[in-house]
C-alpha cells in the first residue's frame, strides 16, 4: 500500500464491493480488485480522487455504458461518485497485451496471433467509433484478455475518449488547434501536430501496435521526447516495416494514409485484409495464441520475485543482441515463414554521431498447431482456481466483517446517468482533454491524490478463513499478484537529443 492509495484492502463500496487488493495505478486512476458480494465473483474497481484536477471516470462511464454488450467490451456494473472519489466497477480482466508480449521470450507475437487479435482489436475500435466516440489512447496496455476466456480481447480505458459526432450524427467541425492527446509511443502524427483527431488516428495507433507486436519494438520506442518522436514518425519510411510482412499490411497502411479527419474508415475492407492473410497463410481461428503456450508452462500469475528474474533475463538478452549485432554474431535472417517472429533488421538506433543498425534474428518459436488439449487444460486449471477463490471470498463476505470504510461519510451512491453526463459532456470532455500528455507507454502520474486511507485498518485477510495451508498458499499466490507486471520500469531518460536517421523517401512517396 502506498501513501497515495485511495482505497485499502477491506474497504467496502456501496455495501457490495469489498476491496481485496490494488492491481494497478494508471496515470489517472487506481485499479483495485474487489469481491462482489451480490454476484459472488471478483470484479475490477477503478477510482480517482474527486479532488484531483483531471478526471476521466465520468467519460469512461459514459462511453462504457453506451457500448455495453459488445463482444470486446467489459461489463460495467456501476459507476458513481462518493464524497471522496469517483469510481466505476467492471469485469475483472486478465493481463494486457503489453504484458503478454513482454512475457514472451522473443517479445514478439507470431504473425498468426497478431492477425487473429487484430480482428478483435479492429472490432473493438469500430464499436467505439460506431457510438460516435474516438478512443484516442489506443495502445497495447489498453487491451486485455479475459480471465475466463483468455482468447478474448477487451478494450480498456476510455478516459481520453472524445465525441466526434454531434447530435445529428454528423462529424463535428475540427478545431484548429486541439492539443496533444494520447501516449507518445502510439500517438499518430496528427496528435503530435496538435491537430483534431479523427477515426483514422485510432487506426494509426493500431498500426504502430501491430508493428510492435511483430517486431518487438518501434524505432522510437526508447525516445521519450514528444517532438523527436513526432519527427521520426513524420519522416519515417514506413515501407521498411513492411518488407517481411504480408502485402495486406501494406494495403492497411495505404488505406489509413488516404483518410482525412472526417472520413469513415472502411472497417470491412481492413477486416478482409486480416482475413485474407489468415486464410492464405493457413492459420485457423482455433490455433492457440502465443500466451496460451506460456499459460501451460507456468501458472497464470507470476510471483514478484520471478518477474525480477524474467526482467533481468530479457535485459541480458537485449544486451547480447546489441553487442552481437556489432560483431555480426547474429546474421540477418531472411526466413520467409511468416509464422516466426520477425527480425528487427530495419531499425536504426543512433545517439549523436554514432549509429548502428541492429541486425538480429530473435530465436524462433515454431507454433504448435494442435492446441486443443493444451488450451483446455490451461483454462480448466485457471477456471477451477478462480471458482475456488470466489467461493472463499463469498464465504468471507457472508461472515460480514465490518470495514472502517463503512464509517466514512455515506456514499452519495449517485450513479451517473447518460443525461447527467451529457449535460456535463462538454465540461467532462474538456476536463478529460486536459489529461493530455503521456510518456512513452506510461501516462504522467496524477499528482496530489489525497491519502484518505491513513489510520484505517484492513479487515480482509485470507488468514482469517482457516483454510488448509495448501489452499491458503495457492490463493495467496494467485490473488496477491493476479496479473503480469504492474511494476513500472523507471527507464532513464537519455538527455542527449537523438540524431535521427532521416529517411530518403517521404511518407507520400
Ligand atoms: N477491468 C480491469 N481488469 C483488470 N485490469 C485492469 C482493468 N482495467 C484496467 N486494468 C489494468 O490497470 C491498468 C491501468 O488502467 P487504465 O488504463 O484504465 O488506467 P489509466 O489511469 O488510464 O492508465 P494509463 O494512464 O496507464 O493508461 C491497465 O493497463 C490494466 O492493466
From TrEMBL:
<keyword id="KW-0547">Nucleotide-binding</keyword>
<dbReference type="GO" id="GO:0005524">
    <property type="term" value="F:ATP binding"/>
</dbReference>
<keyword id="KW-0808">Transferase</keyword>
<protein>
    <recommendedName>
        <fullName>Protein kinase domain-containing protein</fullName>
    </recommendedName>
</protein>
<dbReference type="GO" id="GO:0015630">
    <property type="term" value="C:microtubule cytoskeleton"/>
</dbReference>
<feature type="domain" description="Protein kinase">
    <location>
        <begin position="17"/>
        <end position="278"/>
    </location>
</feature>
<dbReference type="InterPro" id="IPR000719">
    <property type="entry name" value="Prot_kinase_dom"/>
</dbReference>
<dbReference type="InterPro" id="IPR011009">
    <property type="entry name" value="Kinase-like_dom_sf"/>
</dbReference>
<keyword id="KW-0723">Serine/threonine-protein kinase</keyword>
<dbReference type="Pfam" id="PF00069">
    <property type="entry name" value="Pkinase"/>
</dbReference>
<feature type="region of interest" description="Disordered">
    <location>
        <begin position="415"/>
        <end position="476"/>
    </location>
</feature>
<dbReference type="InterPro" id="IPR017441">
    <property type="entry name" value="Protein_kinase_ATP_BS"/>
</dbReference>
<feature type="compositionally biased region" description="Polar residues">
    <location>
        <begin position="437"/>
        <end position="460"/>
    </location>
</feature>
<comment type="similarity">
    <text>Belongs to the protein kinase superfamily. CK1 Ser/Thr protein kinase family.</text>
</comment>
<keyword id="KW-0418">Kinase</keyword>
<dbReference type="InterPro" id="IPR050235">
    <property type="entry name" value="CK1_Ser-Thr_kinase"/>
</dbReference>
<dbReference type="InterPro" id="IPR047916">
    <property type="entry name" value="TTBK_Asator-like_STKc"/>
</dbReference>
<feature type="binding site">
    <location>
        <position position="46"/>
    </location>
    <ligand>
        <name>ATP</name>
    </ligand>
</feature>
<keyword id="KW-0067">ATP-binding</keyword>
<dbReference type="GO" id="GO:0004674">
    <property type="term" value="F:protein serine/threonine kinase activity"/>
</dbReference>
